[in-house]
Amino acid sequence: MEACHPSWKPKVTSYGAMALAITTLEAFPGMWINAFIVCVLCIAWVQKKTLNSNEKILLLLGFSRFWYLCFSWVYCSLSVTYPNYLFVQPTFQLIVLFQTFSNCSSLWVSACLCVFYCIKIANFRNSFFIYLKVKTDRIVPWLLLASLLSALAISIIAYDIAVTELSINHNSTGQGNFSKVSGKMGEIFFQIYFTYGFGFVISFTVVMSSTLLLLFSLWRHKCKMQKNSMNSLSMDAHIKAMKSILSFFIMYSINFIFLILSLIPSTKEEKYVALLSLIFLYAFPGVHSLIVIFSNPKLEKMLIRIISCVKCKDCMK
């Protein structure tokens, strides 16, 4: 195949090199952070033989984000350095399939995490809300299963689009003309992104509704505690929860905005806007997972223990 000809040499532009450097600096720390979450929860799973609902969500979230960053980095590195190895069958279609599945899973499981926090922490007297609070442990596995199935359906659609469009482009531009084929990849990705754009809108709506309900409940509870002069430790816990949830909502909102910008063809011509979108879209899975670690006592304690062990080894040297 001409795509694998050894005499071909990559032509890396300055913008491509910068994009690859940014992607690498953000993707690898993000992969380590999410791998840490997965490892800690898997060890706890083996030891306890079970996981609670919160740990199940975090395990799936860390797993999906790890693979999303992994496949995204592979796509970015190949598209910049060796596009002739990327835009061929079945490499391109498989990367699209797994990247789409992991990305959709990450966003949907993030929405599930926000819904879980809302049900567990918020305090409303509505009968349906009380029913959800009682049945949370039974509902969570079904929510996660629905998230995975919807992500799988969307990734199959994206795979089918990639197969069809790549075949058409190869037939119309000629075998091995990778500059023309890679030039049309933006159109293919726009169609792929558009197919699960509706899913992103739904997940963002779920996150926004859950966050606003939870913040309203925490704020109301905080006001009651101030009037009744309750324990300051309880107050601090609620304020910490509000800050954590609010930071997640802000990050998720910014991530959604940049995701929409990446779908608009006119913004792709503006390299600074595209670069800014790239920076945040790749930073979000790692930064938010880091916030999750410091919001979870078990994960935070294990991270501090690992850091202290590393420092001790450095001191011994």
TrEMBL record:
<keyword id="KW-0919">Taste</keyword>
<dbReference type="GO" id="GO:0004930">
    <property type="term" value="F:G protein-coupled receptor activity"/>
</dbReference>
<feature type="transmembrane region" description="Helical">
    <location>
        <begin position="245"/>
        <end position="266"/>
    </location>
</feature>
<feature type="transmembrane region" description="Helical">
    <location>
        <begin position="193"/>
        <end position="219"/>
    </location>
</feature>
<feature type="transmembrane region" description="Helical">
    <location>
        <begin position="95"/>
        <end position="119"/>
    </location>
</feature>
<dbReference type="GO" id="GO:0033038">
    <property type="term" value="F:bitter taste receptor activity"/>
</dbReference>
<dbReference type="Pfam" id="PF05296">
    <property type="entry name" value="TAS2R"/>
</dbReference>
<comment type="similarity">
    <text>Belongs to the G-protein coupled receptor T2R family.</text>
</comment>
<dbReference type="InterPro" id="IPR007960">
    <property type="entry name" value="TAS2R"/>
</dbReference>
<keyword id="KW-0472">Membrane</keyword>
<feature type="transmembrane region" description="Helical">
    <location>
        <begin position="57"/>
        <end position="75"/>
    </location>
</feature>
<keyword id="KW-0675">Receptor</keyword>
<protein>
    <recommendedName>
        <fullName>Taste receptor type 2</fullName>
    </recommendedName>
</protein>
<keyword id="KW-0812">Transmembrane</keyword>
<feature type="transmembrane region" description="Helical">
    <location>
        <begin position="15"/>
        <end position="45"/>
    </location>
</feature>
<keyword id="KW-1133">Transmembrane helix</keyword>
<feature type="transmembrane region" description="Helical">
    <location>
        <begin position="139"/>
        <end position="159"/>
    </location>
</feature>
<keyword id="KW-0807">Transducer</keyword>
<dbReference type="GO" id="GO:0016020">
    <property type="term" value="C:membrane"/>
</dbReference>
<feature type="transmembrane region" description="Helical">
    <location>
        <begin position="272"/>
        <end position="295"/>
    </location>
</feature>
<keyword id="KW-0716">Sensory transduction</keyword>
<keyword id="KW-0297">G-protein coupled receptor</keyword>
